[in-house]
Amino acid sequence: MTGLPTLATARLRLRRRVPDDAGALFATMADAGAMRWWSCAPFDSVDAVRQHFGDGTFGGRAWAVTRSDDDTAIGFVVANAHRQAGVVEIGYLIARDAWGAGVAREAVSAVVAHLFASGTRRVFADSDPDNAGSIRLLRAMGFTLEGRLRAEWETHIGVRDALIFGLLRDEWRG
């Protein structure tokens, strides 16, 4: 996990997410509404979140989203290398009390800009077809709906389709 750069925006700082961020993010990750579209059920303990953060699922590229003046995590953005070189999948989760303030867009934009500047040629995200907020964010950032994978995920809310949104480096508007 070393070597993950800290990213800064006008209001946010994105630093390496660590297991100790579990305490700050537990309320969000235990919230059924916030976790509805996530690929796993809400967590039942801080220790379970801590273990999830430390299990290496995201290959070490997981940024905690914090406000510029406070190092407390209010969300995270992850970037998974894909099986093709130059292709990265992103995911994100922001605390409910930060919804509607542009935090997700600002944080995801910082990671996407970093990925493209580092040689990534394509970034993609999958979203549940009913996750209107995430779909709105991806479209606003210039992502294109590329397809629908039927019955792609078996989650805590049942078997779900996935909408795949992609963005190419030369399409990025920053």
Automatic annotation (TrEMBL):
Pfam families: Acetyltransf_3. Residues 12-170 form the N-acetyltransferase domain. It comes from Sphingomonas insulae. This is N-acetyltransferase domain-containing protein. The lineage of its organism: Bacteria, Pseudomonadati, Pseudomonadota, Alphaproteobacteria, Sphingomonadales.
